[in-house]
Each structure stands twice: as structure tokens, then as C-alpha cells.
Amino acid sequence: MDIFKQVWKNTHINSGKEKKQYVLFAVAMLALLFFEIVLYFAAVQPRAEDVRIMDNQTPRITSSKQVTILSNKSNNKTYEQLVRSEKPLGGVAILLGTYDNEFVEGRMTVRLYDGKTEQLLETNTLSLEDAVDNSYYKLFFSRAYDTESDLYLITITPQLSEDEGMCAIWMTKDKDDFFPKQATVDGKSLKAYFNIRPMYTAEFLPGFYWAIAGGLLLFVFEAFFIIKRFRKVQYVFLVCAILFGFLYMLVYPSYAVFDEERHIPAAFARASAWSQGQWDVERGADIQIREEEEREGFMPTRPKIEQYYYLTETIFNGAETDEYVDIEMPTHISYSHEYIPQTLGVLLARTFNMGQTATLYTAQMVALIFYSVLCYFAISISPYPVLFSIISLFPFFLRTMGSFSYDSMVNALSFLVIAYILRLAKEKTKVKRKDILIISALFVLLAPCKVIYTTLVLLILLIPSNNFKQKRQKFIWLASITGICLLVILLSTGFYFENSFGETGVVTSPWGEDAYSVSMLLSMPWEFIRITVSSMFDLFASLLFGAVGNFQHISLPSTLSILFLA
């Protein structure tokens, strides 16, 4: 009882102003809860009821037709498939795949016939807008059809708009081959391969909605009392970063945004190299990962309901095998440390024999914590803590902070470097040797990650010369750190020395992108500087106008729609 009395004493409202704040907070919480309840009954529950009806009409279709390869030359050609379904047919599922990460726009006209009498039962048109890689389409008929022969004829007529675009249509995928030997659709086959339900069920929508909505309520509640208790912006940032970053990880799962298909194998490759104690340079882009991690999951596309099912149903699955397989690295390899947080997360997951989904989320959580902690220290030492907190929570950074992208490391180190230099610029005290060593160490870590961030050394010019023991020390320090950064960049991969003076257009290797940049810098310095400065202005404008109100490549309305599944 004494403990409760002490807690009540510490939280007791002592003034009318404070009482008003609590009343306004309670009203805001009730208003938010009321909005979530209205949204649930207006959008989520009707959708769940529609799904419950369709659950009883899940098609069971089998066929021996080979996979269909489509191109623009396939336009207006009709592809037939005779299927058998003992139960009433309420819809069909189509998995559309494209090549080389291309977008293929167009539409498909799907007609359903009685398989015996060839009577036309229904005609539907599917839009293929924004279809890329694996896009899972579900076509629900206006009603469930039940023919006497249990035979149905399905025809597909594509109209593709891209001249070079190609895609493949199949009903499911064979486990042993990228292209299926048989085009098959039935509930058991789909669940066996993807470990997902072929058509989402009614129970999933309310549960997922209230998990997100409840998390939002909890965040608002905790943030209010943290602000009241600590009144320090870095604590508020820490709570916002972890909670918003975690919610963002749920809304946009792994493989659901661009470039994740490159960064994920990069982290897996480094984890394998660390665990084996060496990196075989002669093998170039050939790396080893666990067979468990090779599984496709979902390639980059906008999040779909099947992805959430796949994640929720496999999150607690352990690895089925510890065997390693060889794959080709889809991006350049370097000896730098930009993937350290994600690599540590992968190694931790492997230690506990986690499956693919748990491994992905563990690595993302480690990256999120790493980013949040570094930014916490940056905000703590910055003379502009509120500004740094707002910038660190831009939607663009929210996506990268808990992802496999090395931008999580780059952004966190950049904030820390800038905050430290600005603190030295604002303070009237002399710059100490400790400060020089810390700034130098941060730049040594940052420079190999992205060469362009070496230009941050120019911020040293903001430090007043009077803060140094001798005025020329500032320029000596600037030149020394710049030289150290360039040396670290060159030494981060031995391939630089081999290709630095070569022709810029013929650099091909796992380190080709970096070698190309160094080659251009040494052979065409003024053109390199012009392109660099122009890119800086262009990307700054993109960040300024694209980050506020937009979530990376996805607009805010689309994000909210996916968030509430409405």
C-alpha cells in the first residue's frame, strides 16, 4: 500500500493548469478510440463479413496445363484451361510474375464457361497496374457456380502495354522449379507451398486491425507520460523511434519495398563470412547462405494480404535445415561495415535456429535499436535537439531505420557527426584532443559506407578559429580528416587500386560501382564535382518534398489504407 501511496503522491495533480492538460489528454484519447471504433464498424467489419462469405466458396481446381509465357505479342490471344471442381466455384487465383523487376501494365480478360456445354457464365477484367515480380491476384465471381459435370473452362486474354514487357501466368508454383510443371490451384497446394491461406479469412482482419490500432493508443498514452515525467526531447524521440519504427516494420514487411531484395542477401552473406571466419575474395559475388534463407518469401512489391499471412503463420517457425547453399550476390561487395547491425541480427537468429521470417525481423529490430540509440546520443549533444528529433523521425528515415538497408547505419552516423560538430561550433570552449579523435573516428566509420558523405568534413569550417589553440589548426584538422577518409575509402577494397585509372565504362566486378566512382574522380575530376553537386541539390529537394507527407515511394493515403486494411 505504501508503494501505491507514493505513486499517487508523485502523480497527483497540483495545479489547475496541470489538471486541464490531463483533461485534454483524456478527451484526445477518447476521441482517438472513438475514431478507431467507427473505422472498424464502417470498414473493417464489413470487409471481414465479405471474406467470411467467400471462405465457403474457395475453389479447388486442378489442371495439367503448362505455364503460360506472355509478352506484348500475346495480346488478344486467348489461353484456355479446363478445370474440375467438385465444390461450387466462387473464384480463381492467379499468380502473375514479371522479369527483371519490370513493371508491366495492362489487363487480363477472364471468362468462365461451363466446361461441358461451353455456355458463357461470367466475364471479368483484371487490371495489371503496378504488377511487378510476384503479384497475386484473386478473382471473385459474382456468385458461386455449380455445373452438373463439375467441369469449367477458364479463358485468359491478355492486353499488355509494355513493348518489352513479359510476364508468366500460373496458378501456383512447383517446389522444385521456378516454373511449375503443372498449373494447379487448390487450397492444399497453395498452403503447402506458400504456407498461406489461398483466400484470406475473416478472423485475420479484425485481429490485425486492433493490433495496429491498439499499438497506436499505447504509443500516445506512453508518449504523454514520458513527456510529463522527463520533459527531455531525446526521451520522446527514443519512444517515437522504436514504436513508430516497429509499427512501420509491421505495415511494410521485408521484401515489400524496393532494394530490400539486394540488402537482405548482403546481410546474409556477411553473416556467413563472419561465422566461417573468412571471406573468399576469389569467389567474387558467389556467397553462401542457409538454405532456410534462400526461400523467396515475397519479391519487392506493394504489400499484399498474402504477405501478412505468410509472416504471421511463419514467425515462430524454426529453421528446417542448417545446410548452406551457394547463391550469386545481387549487389556489390565491400569490406566495409555498413551492415553490422543487420549482420549481428542474422547471427543472433541463426544462433537460436530461427526460420526465415524470425531471422528477418530479428535483424530489422537490431538495426532499429542501433539507429535509435545513435540518434539518441546525437540529439542529446546537439544544440538543436528538437530539429534533430523531427528530422530523425521523417517517414523516409522511419522506413530505413528498421530495414536491411545500410542507410540505417549511414544516417545514424551522419546525425552523430553533424551534432558533434555543431556542438563544437556553438560552444565557446577550446576544442580538445578528445574531440578531434572522436570526430576522426566517426568519419573513418562513415566514409567507407558512402563516399559522398565525406563532404561533411566541410562542417568543420563552422567551428570558430578561436576555439582552437592555434587558428591554423582548424585547416590542418580539416585536411587531415579528409586525407584519412580518402585513404580508408581506397583501402576498404583492394580492387580500387586495380581499376582506379582504368576506363570508367568497362569496370565489371562485385566492386564495380565504387571503382567506377573513384575512376571518374581521378580521370575527370571537374565533371565528377559538377555531377556530385547537382546530385546533392536534386536529392535534397527530393528528400525535402518527398519525405514530408510521403513514406519513401508510397504516398501517405496508400500507407494509411494498408495500415487499417480498409
Automatic annotation (TrEMBL):
Q: Which residues cross the membrane?
A: 22-44, 207-227, 233-252, 358-379, 409-425, 437-463, 475-497
Q: Keyword set for this entry? A: Membrane, Transmembrane, Transmembrane helix
- Record's InterPro entries? DUF2142_membrane
Entry protein name: DUF2142 domain-containing protein
What species does this protein belong to? Candidatus Ruthenibacterium merdavium
Q: Identify the taxonomic lineage of the organism of origin.
A: Bacteria, Bacillati, Bacillota, Clostridia, Eubacteriales
